[in-house]
Design a protein that fits this description.
The protein has 709 residues and is of the alpha+beta class. Among the domains are: 57-123 and 137-166, no CATH class; 184-288 and 304-454 and 468-494, Rossmann fold (3-Layer(aba) Sandwich), CATH 3.40.50.150; 591-649, Phenylalanyl-tRNA Synthetase, Chain B, domain 1, CATH 3.30.56.70. It is 32% helix and 17% strand. An 8-stranded mixed β-sheet has the order 10-11-9-8-12-13-15-14, with helices on both faces. Strand 8, helix 9 (245-254) and strand 9 (258-263) form a beta-alpha-beta unit. The protein starts with 5 loop residues before the first helix and ends in an 11-residue tail after the last helix. 38% of the residues are buried. It catalyses: guanosine(27) in tRNA(Tyr) + 2 S-adenosyl-L-methionine = N(2)-dimethylguanosine(27) in tRNA(Tyr) + 2 S-adenosyl-L-homocysteine + 2 H(+). InterPro entries: SAM-dependent_MTases_sf (IPR029063), Trm1 (IPR002905), tRNA_met_Trm1_C (IPR042296), Znf_C2H2_type (IPR013087). It comes from Daphoenositta chrysoptera. Pfam families: TRM (PF02005). One of its GO terms (molecular function) is tRNA (guanine) methyltransferase activity.
Length: 709
């Protein structure tokens, strides 16, 4: 066990194709040394040609002592030290030497110990004195995986950890190639994928898989399913495949409706995508430039269970080919791939992109947002919607450079990502209309009021007049900042979201259904209790981009036929049709009810507050951007007035019943009128010893903090 056989090693070296330079080094060096091999040669080693491990790699100390052949009556040299470093000695002294100098400083990996070696295995430059003999006595370790020689023990530990992070845990010295036990099989939406142990670290693995992005994948699948219902078949591209989980879900559930292409520029990722395709019983269609093997199919054998796997840069494949659906999910920002995505995307196709550079989009690294998106942003209460509009503005400018316009179908900004789904409209007129919706935003830093800058090129004398608030007149200095350029149009398309919800119900995507219901309510600016799956007029046809799109209940007289597109005259004629009533744009941005709460007052429940705003005649809904956010058409002043009206005062001794009726609008920081002007229902029922406390509270100016005493 562990004894080196020279003839066997040399016979196997011929088959492994060791470079000539290493063969010369082996002839000149010690016979125990094994030459290095490249990573490609390591993978080519089969079970027919096993390799023996280096003598410094052993499982037990007894195995190391067997190499010395310890006997009481004879002096034996150390098998890991040259004669000039450690002279031959008797067994008891050699045992202590092996234990203290080699075994205790070893590096352990999967039951093996990589002991320190002092043999002349590692070519070392001569020392300053020119002594070649002492230069060859450098201590080092032999890696059990790649047979590299490392000098320091800490470097050896880091070297092994890098192998583990890359999934390279199989030793090149194992005689039979072990099964890929290091792979972990993950199942999501009836799709199995195998990933590496460090699959959650994108910069250190070739098979990045984030379970927290399951909701993102479900939303993209619903959008693709809606597009597949409009025309068949559609060519879709997952530009950054990683494990291929998203493309596999498309092909497994949508079958013949889609032709899936999964791309990745990393060779290891492409190999794993192919293995995952076979794991899900999908055939792989290789790229023309790649070599064919027995498991791939040719062009003539293509069917619904075939996935095309390509290995090239995402910009290259999007420049070379046209697609109906493109999804971009790089590590970080997607701005480097937008020009290529809109170059060849087909008319009325869909481009979806997931941006995970939330540090810049959420205004934590404002200089990065300015560098990547050309947008000036600050941290506000509506920072998530600000991030979504920043990404859409970059998408709109990229599409306009290709003479294409966009209609935003979906914009979602959650904790880990920002997802934007747009439909592409070909032509300079849609491009101009979309470009006009990219405008600057005026934001007041005192009261958080905001308004988009008016269209036009004329310079206004006082841009503060566009803000509904009067903070500039009452506060010293400059009170507002100019943010943007941002997308000023709608963030949702109600008809498309309703069809996405139907697809989510059909395929049983439980996590996406609550979010889609919230998005439909947000798009229509209504509360959830008024939500209905089928709104009037939506059963037969939906209108998007001025074009009527066929739905399951639509008759055959639709403007889009399966697999075909009508002429430009028909599309232009359809574009002139008026939009439906349900496509009215929702109010931009939202208010956080906690951000504008009044100190010393108890706010009403959020759902009740929505009813109060609705009774006041304003459009109102909740928003997915913020669980305590309220999207409403009411100005901030009216928002605060309603919030103050239905808030109850907090004090010790008595609790007011019902809303507080205030005469007119009250801003934060103003004094509350005298107690005679405030009517609190049930105040007369308070006991005498408590009425004095109440009178003392209401006769003073409005408190700036909650009374705790």
């Amino acid at each position: 066990d562990g004894v080196v056989v020279s003839e066997k090693v040399k016979s196997n070296n011929l088959d492994v194709k060791i470079p000539e330079s290493e063969l010369e080094a082996e002839e000149k060096g010690a016979e125990e040394d094994h030459p290095r091999e490249s990573d490609s040669n390591i993978l080519d080693i089969s079970s027919d040609y096993p390799r023996d491990k280096h003598i410094s790699i052993q499982r037990h100390l007894a195995d190391l002592e067997k190499l010395a052949d310890l006997r009481e009556d004879e002096k034996k040299p150390c098998p890991l030290c040259p004669e000039e470093k450690f002279k031959a000695c008797y067994s008891h002294k050699l045992h202590r030497h092996l234990q203290n100098l080699h075994w205790k400083v070893s590096v352990e990996f999967e039951g093996y110990r990589m002991c320190i070696c002092h043999l002349s295995c590692r070519p070392v430059k001569p020392n300053l004195a020119g002594d070649q003999t002492l230069a060859k006595l450098g201590a080092h370790y032999h890696c059990i995986i790649c047979s590299a020689t490392i000098i320091r023990r800490t470097d050896m530990i880091g070297h092994i950890n890098r192998h583990v992070n890359k999934g390279e845990t199989e030793s090149r010295f194992i005689t039979v190639r072990a099964p890929k036990s290091s792979y972990e099989v993950v199942k999501e939406s009836a799709t199995d994928v195998q990933v590496l142990p460090n699959h959650s670290t994108p910069q250190k693995t070739d098979s990045y898989f984030n379970p927290k992005m399951k909701l993102n994948r479900q939303l993209i699948f619903c959008a693709l399913a809606v597009l597949a219902g409009e025309r068949k078949p559609i060519e879709c591209l997952d530009a950054f495949g990683a494990t291929g989980i998203m493309g596999l879900q498309w092909a497994k559930h949508l079958r013949s409706s889609v032709k899936v292409t999964i791309n990745d520029c990393n060779e290891n990722s492409v190999t794993m995508i192919k293995e995952n395709c076979h794991l899900n019983k999908m055939k792989v269609k290789m790229n023309i430039k790649e070599e064919d093997n027995d498991e791939t199919v040719g062009d003539g054998e293509e069917n619904s269970d075939t996935i095309e796997v390509t290995k090239m840069d995402a910009n290259v494949i999007m420049h070379l080919r046209s697609f109906d659906f493109i999804h971009l999910d790089p590590f970080g920002s997607s701005v480097n791939y937008l020009d290529s995505a809109f170059r060849n995307v087909r008319n009325l196709g869909i481009v979806s992109l997931t941006s995970t550079d939330i540090s810049s989009l959420y205004a934590k690294a404002q200089h990065v947002a300015l560098r990547h998106y050309g947008c000036n942003i600050v941290r506000t209460e509506y920072y998530k919607e600000l991030a979504a509009r920043t990404v859409i503005a970059a998408v709109t400018r990229a599409a306009a450079r290709c003479n294409k316009g966009v209609e935003v179908l979906l914009a979602v900004a959650l904790e880990h990502f920002v997802l934007v789904v747009v439909r592409v409209l070909r032509g300079p007129t849609p491009a101009d209309d979309s470009a006009k919706k990219v405008r600057y935003l005026i934001h007041c830093q005192w009261c958080e009021e905001r308004v988009f800058q008016k269209e036009g090129n004329m310079v206004e004398e006082n841009p503060y007049q566009q803000l509904p608030c009067d903070c500039h007149g009452s506060m010293p200095g400059k009170t507002a900042v100019l943010l943007g350029p941002l997308w000023s149009g709608a963030l949702f398309n109600t008809g498309f979201l309703r069809r996405m919800l139907l697809e989510a119900v059909q395929y049983g995507l439980d996590e996406a259904q609550p979010l889609l219901k919230t998005l439909v309510c947000e798009a229509e600016c209504t509360t959830l209790k008024h939500f209905s799956t089928h709104s009037p007029g939506d059963e037969n046809k939906q209108e998007e981009c001025g074009v009527y799109i066929k739905t399951p209940n639509t008759s055959a007289e639709s403007y889009l036929v399966h697999g075909k597109r009508k002429s430009e005259e028909v599309l232009r004629g359809a574009a002139k049709r008026p939009r439906a009533e349900h496509s009215a744009e929702h109010p931009p941005f939202y208010y956080n009810i906690h951000r504008h709460s009044i100190k010393g007052m108890n706010m009403p429940k959020l759902n009740k507050f929505l009813n109060y705003l609705s009774e006041a005649g304003y459009r109102v809904s909740r928003t997915h951007f913020d669980p305590m956010g309220v999207r409403t058409s009411a100005p901030l002043a009216q928002f605060k007035t309603v919030l103050m009206k239905y808030s109850t005062p907090t004090y010790v001794g008595a609790q007011a019943e019902g809303p507080v009726h205030l005469p007119g609008e009250i801003q934060v920081g103003e004094e509350v009128p005298a107690a005679a002007e405030i009517k609190v229902e049930g105040a007369e029922l308070v006991e005498d010893n408590k009425s004095g406390v109440a009178a003392a509270v209401f006769t003073q100016p409005y408190p700036t903090h909650c009374a705790a005493d």
